[in-house]
Fold this protein.
Amino acid sequence: MAIDRETVLHVARLARLDLTEGEADRLTLELGAILEAVSKVAELDLADVPPTSHPLDLVNVWADDEPRPSLTLDEALSNAPAREGDLFRVPPSHGPEVSA
């Protein structure tokens, strides 16, 4: 599957990316190469291959959770630029409202 420059520019507009001419040309070539590699994988007969999320078995390498001494409240807040009682003081958010 090939991708043309117009498709790259269309996707860039949808993503609100302002690409230079050079970036658009480079991305057209790079995305074309990626799509070509994916199409080669799509040609394989994988009917007898079970679906997996990883090629190797995953093993949890974390140690067991064991309670141990930790920082005191004063130690934890000692490098905070601002503190309000037992909490970090942070500037108010000016971004969009997020509702739960």
